[in-house]
Amino acid sequence: MFSRVFASKHASRALLGATGAVGAGMVYTNLNPQFTERNVAACDADPNSQTVLGLLQNISQKVSNIEVLLGGGSGTTSSNFPSSAVAGSGKGIDIVLGAQWGDEGKGKLVDILSQEYDVCARVAGGSNAGHTIVVDGVKYKFHLLPSGILNDKALCIVGNGVVVHLPSFLNELDSLGGNGISYNGRVFVSDRAHLVFDFHQAVDGKQEDRLGRHKLGTTKKGIGPAYSSKIQRNGLRVGDLQDYDYFERRFRELADHHMRSYPGLEINVEEQLAYYKSIAPRVQEITIDTIALCNQQFEDGKKILVEGANAAMLDIDFGTYPFVTSSNPSVGSVLTGLGVSPRKLRGIYGTVKAYCTRVGQGPFPTELPITTKGDAGMHLSQVGAEYGTTTGRARRCGWLDIPQLKYSTMINGYTAVNLTKIDVLTGLEQVKIGKAYRYKGKYLSSMPASLEVLGNVEVEYETLPGWTEDISQCRTFEELPLNCQRYILRVQELIGVPIRWIGVGPNRLDVIDRGVGWDLSE
Question: Do the domain assignments include residue 150?
Fold first, then answer.
């Protein structure tokens, strides 16, 4: 069990942690030297801080819980937390991020958590992201909208860091209406968010085709070219539609630039301008300064949830470049893509599939062949229904990769992990975990930037026994088969972050929540 205790807003953190593994346990305390008697005493002087006595009582309760998990004591175990403990308490911005190569199942957790939040936001990427949620047998696919739209009380924000293809976005809104979901007055788009045009998508396809067998595996949704326009400072933003004369002039210049840069590219400028003029009033109704809105919601004590798109290993800076997306799907994008300060962040939840998948090209150290029926690779692909939400492409599959997860954790600082699709491993005689990388006979201590190195590492595996029991109806950790529990505890031990949520099936409520005691942000 892991618990983080806050002495006060004036004092440093004290971390109490324990890692559970089969037959082993550990408790450690790490106190900042600045956490002195003088600082602790300051708690009493601040009416908004916890008293020293209250702090000690809190620590005592958390230590009692640790003792239970390690086999002693009589405190309350994490499985006894009420089901309502699905969201953080108090003021702060919580974030759900992809910890691998995408398609981990972030949207499902966001959908569950968003029922307890006032604001849900997207901060980076565009319609290249895809989240599928099944509610009462109805499948919803979101590409630009936050999955929190299914909470009819939540505001949904598309932040300034997102690039928006308005035709696709408006189609998503229309599909909501078709399913009886009202969004009026609940969806807002940043006036600073950049626009993706149809010719950006055409350019995306042309650039990919030029690469031949060295393709990057782009979704061809125009995301890269749109971000290029943004960086080249000739792009247009959603708010520009509020001044149509300005929009028209800038659009003509941008279209001309692209036709000159890509011979053979044809853009029907007049047709496009007529379309944007026709939708301008509708877009203006949902266009707002989301930076001011989000920060005001925070000051008003509203609970804010950020839904990350893509994943850490597709980050333009930290991923397997150039086989990456064109934005930063890591935690930093929350600051730059929403316009909030780091002091306002709280829970950072890394979503991890119980195995690995990847769409498109690029190194994939733990990849398995998907060729023979009955093999592990084919099992993961078929049982996991591993096809992309956005592209429909078959995903590459492999074993869980611990060096990659440690790297992702180091960058993002996850306070808890959402482990998804553990049910897909059911039926395998053995399950493996990629535990370490070796290159030319030497262990690697970090994720290499060189694709040549990463593409030729030798993965050291740890093999655990599998299980055959159906786990889809399990709602507590203790109900899971023993071998499934061992797998989860071993993963938790290796990455050093508590696993709070465990996905046991495809439906909305097929999730075990181990409670706030398994969340360092609490």
Answer: yes
The 10s digit of each residue's pLDDT in 105-124 is 888 898 889 889 999 999 99
Q: Which of 62, 143, 220, 230 is catalytic?
A: 230
Please report, in range form, the residues annotated as the binding site for GTP.
102-108, 130-132, 395, 421-423, 503-505
Q: Is 103 a catalytic residue?
A: yes
Residues 89, 516: contact at Cβ < 8 Å?
yes
- Let me know whether 264 and 301 are in one domain: no
CA dihedral 342, 345, 347, 349 (to 10 degrees): -60
Query: In Å, how far are 147, 215, 228, 254, 502 from 261, measured between CA atoms?
Result: 37, 20, 13, 11, 49
Note whether residue 189 is domain-resident. yes
Q: How far is C-alpha 476 from the geometric centre of its chain's CA atoms?
A: 24
**Can you give the residue range of the structural domain that contains 172?**
93-194+287-307
Q: Is 131 a catalytic residue?
A: yes
Q: Which residues are annotated as a binding site for substrate?
A: 389-395
Domain boundary among 76, 101, 130: 76
pLDDT of residue 205: 74
Catalytic entry in 62, 94, 103, 303: 103
The annotated binding site for IMP is made up of 103-106, 128-131, 219, 233, 310, 325, 393
Give the residue-averaged pLDDT of 9-37.
Answer: 36
Question: Within a domain: residue 321?
Answer: no
- The four Cα atoms 367, 482, 350, 420 give a dihedral, to 10 degrees, of 70
> Binding site: which residues?
102-108, 128-132, 219, 233, 310, 325, 389-395, 421-423, 503-505
| Same-domain check for residues 35 and 109 | no
How many Å apart are CA 7 and CA 43, to the nearest integer?
Answer: 8
- Catalytic-residue membership of 111: no
Catalytic residue among 94, 118, 131, 165: 131
* pTM to 2 decimal places: 0.80
pLDDT at 76: 37
pLDDT tens digits, one per residue of 287-330 = 999 999 999 999 999 999 999 988 999 999 999 999 999 999 99
